[in-house]
Amino acid sequence: MVLTFIFFVGIAVIAVTAYVLFVLRSEIGHALNRTLVEQSQRIVFQVDQASTAVDRQQVVANIARYADMRITVAFQDSVLWDAEGARLAVGQLLSSEPAMKTSYINEDEIIIHPNSVGEPVYYVTTHLPETGFVIRVGQPTPPLLYLVNRMKTTLVVGMIMALFLALLGSWIAAQRVVSPLQRIRNSARSISEGNIDQKIQVDSRATEFLDLAESLNRMSDGYREKIDELQRMAKVQNEFIGNVSHEVRNPIFAVGGYLEALATSSLPEEQRRHYARKAILNLHRLNTLFNDLIEIAQLEYREDIIRLDDFNLTELVDDIADTLRPKAEDKELDLVASNETLFVSADRNRIRQVIINLVENAIAYSDAGTIAIALEPRNGKVCCTVTDTGKGMAPEHLARVFERFYRVDPDRSRKSGGTGLGLSIVKQIIQAHGEQIFVESTPGVGTRFWFELPAVFVPAAAPV
Prior knowledge:
Beta-Lactamase; Helix Hairpins; six-stranded antiparallel sheet
């Protein structure tokens, strides 16, 4: 970056310097030559217009005095008049003046010759063939030329300073650009090597670098979240595979054991029927497990599994309560469902499955008391709540109660024939409706599950 910057700035400096040293100098010389020739021609005209030698001498003296020039008028090899300022010399030899030696050869061309104090004087000589006169005009360095020469020197020095400052500035700029990029590169390399918790920090005021660092940090955070999620999913998957293996292995082993026992010829008939019932019960449990697994897979990977319709939720709750009330009464539990008529937009069969799972779960974990199914309109939705007065759950169980195969009381769940997938299926169905299910519980007091569904106040087609 520094070399590129210096290259382009150096080209510009060299071009400007070359123009000043060569092109501008030549143009100044030509302009000075043209000016002195024009002045010489005007003086020659004034001298030539004088009628007598005395008048010519007076003209030469006046011009030299007031124009700050040196004017020399020669005829053949002798100088007639040589005027410089207020000084006027008459009758000198031409050979005494070095600037006059080449007058006939370099006519109308500038000759630079120092004066008595060493200052350069610019001379131009004009020859008048009609009269034989040779007129030489000498002028010290013009103020404008002096100023131009000073400007030329200043410009060259300025170009050199500009090149130096460009070098210094490009180095500083490169450091300000390269240093943040190096930090970003090192941080990115560290992240690629597995140190995903490292943050990219840039010590720069440039908004672009700050935005770049912030974007990379956001990207790193996104990758970190995805990695954490993948690790969590891998852990859940491993647990799921382990749980499935365990849940499948037990019924299979049990069925195999019962079948081996049934193959014994000396087995009594009553014992044979008992083993047959146990084998069928485990096969039923295995079938329920596979059905639940298929159900979860369908809910996760099929978007069209939910078929929305408008229906009477109160009627559905009453039907579920009538169906499960005998099962609750077997445990001396009261199943209560008394609600006003409310309609919702949802999948009737799936919501029926949700409520049945919640109520059966409440029955399984309650030994006495009441189970209530309540419906309540709330902000354009209908809140469905299933409450029991069972043993409740400790706070550490609430965060995992919807996980697959998670059981608060494994022994009770297996005795009731549960697979540990019921609440996970419930959660999947409610989420497929775009809603969430919630739970709160107090040990020794009871548990409450609730979820919401979109309310329909004027259903298109309500069940009769």
